Amino acid sequence: MAANETQGPPQAQQSLLPDYSQMVLEAIDALNEKAGSNKSTIAKHIESIHSDLPAAHTTLLSHHLHKMKNSGQIVMVKNNYMRPDPNAPPKRGRGRPPKPKAPLPAGTVVSPPRPRGRPPKDPSAPPKPKTPVSTGRPRGRPPKIAKTTPATAPPPPGVKRGRGRPPKV
What we know:
The protein is mainly alpha-helical. Helices cover 31% and strands 4% of the residues. Keywords: DNA-binding, Nucleus, Repeat.
């Protein structure tokens, strides 16, 4: 029970705070710096207006600034955040733009593209009989043939070899 009672007030405090994106835009407008406002000045301005901020205020601010920058609500120039210029042209995407497609003549029906991947097997089709591939030999390595005669014959009993390498002839 005590845990449920302690969770009530922080939620009420957070509901009094406006959204972080709204607080950031208000701070940028209030500071009204020509080159934009950096993260620390935005944080100080928000802290001066709203005294009951959560403990993770700096982390939340960084997260929301990054999210707003990616969505295009604010623009970052030299580590300073500012509102985007309404007259600025839209930002180009990365890479080469696609080539314009040639218009098709009227009356042609465009078939839908083939789906990706391997087509599924027909369940009603009878299974193919497996044809054995035979070459006349069994699979695998052939067994070693045991020799019946001794491999090394005894040397002739006459001339004995000397030690070392024989001389060049």
